[in-house]
Amino acid sequence: MRILAICGSLRAASSNLAALRAAAMLAPGGVEIILYPGLGGLPHFNPDLDTAAPPNSVQVLRRQVGHSDGLIISSPEYAHGVAGAMKNALDWLVSSLEFPEKPVALINTAPRATHAQTQLREILATMSARLIEPASITLDFAGRNLDAAGVASDPALSARLAAAVVAFVAAIS
Predict the structure, then answer these.
(1) CA 106 to CA 20: how far, in whole Å?
(2) d(CA 47, CA 72)
(3) Nearest 5°: phi and psi at 57?
(4) Do 56 and 92 form a contact (C-beta atoms < 8 A)?
């Protein structure tokens, strides 16, 4: 099974990226979690460019979404909203044939960041995603600067994250 992980933060030391990398480390056998590396390289969404031949970076995103069995999204909240880079990627997927009914899990690394999660849920529902609730979790990274290894070795965080990945895989299977 192939799961595409999309981090909505462009920061190298992002807690969202650490959570996704840890999820890849904790995935059960036979499950491959691939990080999508191109978020920052997508052009600003422009309907005039969303043609039969959109920009190459958009084609790569759509192809990767199409070749995945599901998506795990972890994105920060900026100014009570969805991070701009994340929203831009979703805008490029709105008209794609690869996205509708795609299983999606959301990981939130900041319990107080509820506005972006609510907005992501609304956007994904509008895009006809299949949100997998048992796999959509909030982890508390409050005040801790953890990398993927730190998340994977923390008993509480790793147990919740591993359980969410297992729930996601079960829902997709």
Answers:
(1) 10
(2) 26
(3) -60, -30
(4) no
Q: Which residues have C-beta within 8 Å of that of residue 36, sequence separation ≥ 6?
A: 4, 5, 6, 7, 61, 64
Alpha-carbon distance values, 138 to 67, 128, 142 (Å): 27, 22, 11
pLDDT tens, position by position, 2-30: 999 999 999 999 999 999 999 999 999 99
Tell me which residue has tokens 């969303």. 50
Contacts of residue 7, defined as CB under 8 A and 6 or more positions apart, other chains included, come to 14, 16, 17, 20, 35, 36, 39, 74, 75
pLDDT tens track for 90-113: 999 999 999 999 999 999 999 998
* CATH fourth-level superfamily of 2-172: Flavodoxin domain (3.40.50.360)
30: its two tokens: 């036979």
Q: Tell me whether strands 81-82 and 77-78 are parallel, antiparallel or unpaired.
A: antiparallel
pLDDT in tens, 55-77: 999 999 999 999 999 999 999 99
